Amino acid sequence: MRKLLIVAGVVLLVGYLTATNPAWLPDWARSAASSVALPFRLAALAAKEADAELRVPVGGVRAAQVKDSWHASRPGGRLHEGQDIFARRGTPVYSATEGYVVRVGESGLGGLTVFVAGAGGRWYYYAHLDSHAPDLKVGDHVTPDTVLGYVGNTGNAAGTPPHLHFGVYTAAGAIDPLPLLADRE
Ligand SMILES: [Zn+2]
Fold first, then answer.
1. Which pairing describes strands 83-86 and 141-142: parallel, antiparallel, or unpaired?
2. Which residues are within 5 Å of ligand 1 (an ion), measured at CB?
3. 96 near 124, Cβ under 8 Å?
4. HSE-CB for 42 with a 13 A CA cutoff
5. How many A from CA of 165 to the centre of ligand 1?
6. Which partner for 121 in 7, 46, 133, 175 could form a disulfide, CB atoms 3.0-4.6 Å apart?
7. Ligand 1 centre from 82 Cα, in Å?
8. Quick one: CA dihedral 100, 105, 110, 112, positive or negative?
């Protein structure tokens, strides 16, 4: 019983500190509280309705300018599970939605990538970035105003004109983002 009370106390304290985020909290405690809280934040967001509209994640590009590349055939019999949004190298890539950064990575296929978990259990995938936004890290809360990185052609896009590969994943698999795209302003 006493142990249970201590655990409950720690959970409440972490929750309180995470919610209030006081200025005196040292950085190590802030980051510990934030990593403990992330799974709870993701669960709360997953319980919400999925976004009906996604802001075009590339600066200066309108939804009508995105040329449909959903399910285009790719080498090895693969289908293209996303949309390619072309723009000049270095154009800012914004989050299409509110959410939390769940991965800041690098792979042979996607090059420099970011995954954002959003409402309704969806995951948003941003690939072929020229660079990540400085200081972007797992656990960061993002909105459609947050820069995740910059358009490039890293990974298997090397040799193609710079573009963002934008993918949307649900528990049932990838869905086409194009019908959901809305202009940023
Ligand atoms: Zn692509």
1. unpaired
2. 84, 165
3. yes
4. 18
5. 4
6. 46
7. 6
8. positive
